[in-house]
Amino acid sequence: MTGLLASVATLGEMEIVRAGGADIVDLKDPARGALGAWEPDGLRAAVARWRSWGVGAPQLSATIGDQPMDPETVLRAAESVAATGVPLVKLGLFADGDAAACLAALRPLARRTRLIAVFFADLGVAFELIPAAADAGFHGVMVDTADKGAGGLRQRMEDDAIDAFVRTARARGLLTGLAGSLSADDIAPLARFEPDYLGFRGALCDGGRTGTLAAARVATVRAALRSPRAAA
Ligand SMILES: O=C[C@H](O)COP(=O)(O)O
């Protein structure tokens, strides 16, 4: 079954999505961009909260912020998030620099932290960077959207290309995730491609992705992921 990655902006939201059955609790500040980062103090508090959950807890991930594609900058940001104890660190591959050099620069960190490279459907997905991420020791790859006002994943990327992304990544042993202004209606069509996770923020909130996360919305998405055909 495809799992639920739920992006949260506060400790209170962490508890809501944990109670709602999220498989990955993803620490992200949506007001700061597509991959907006929490402050280090907040990350440390979130790690402490996550550890207090004990056995059976969902996984914990965090984003490093929308960083320019400069290897030193990206490495520093990823190391600073990893240093807080977050076990899964997500970083975006933007179109403004040398993403391949950034992936290579992260190789030492990938030996001690599980890294997820996030591609952006609306910036153009460079398929050749999927094996580059695997070669650098990354744990997984996702596709998301960078411009949250410009349509969801399925408006910005053809189904065939989404399918090819998942298959290419899986063939390299990478964990796979799909996100990008997804709604419950996107679950059945995307579940067909059997990604490991679908990621959500906006659909979980009253008032859009910078609004208030609502338990009822989490329940709707969780149920649709359990029975995608019934939800179609
Ligand atoms: O990683 C998943 C994202 O937080 C999805 O955010 P979104 O549903 O608002 O595009």
UniProtKB/TrEMBL annotation:
InterPro entries: 4HFCP_synth (IPR007565), RibuloseP-bd_barrel (IPR011060). One of its GO terms (molecular function) is lyase activity. It comes from Methylopila turkensis. It catalyses: 2 D-glyceraldehyde 3-phosphate = 4-(hydroxymethyl)-2-furancarboxaldehyde phosphate + phosphate + 2 H2O. It comes from the Bacteria. This is (5-formylfuran-3-yl)methyl phosphate synthase. The active site is at 28 (schiff-base intermediate with substrate), 90 (proton acceptor). Pfam families: 4HFCP_synth. It is an enzyme of class 4 (lyase). Keywords: Lyase, Schiff base. Its EC number is 4.2.3.153. Catalyzes the formation of 4-(hydroxymethyl)-2-furancarboxaldehyde phosphate (4-HFC-P) from two molecules of glyceraldehyde-3-P (GA-3-P). The keyword Lyase applies.
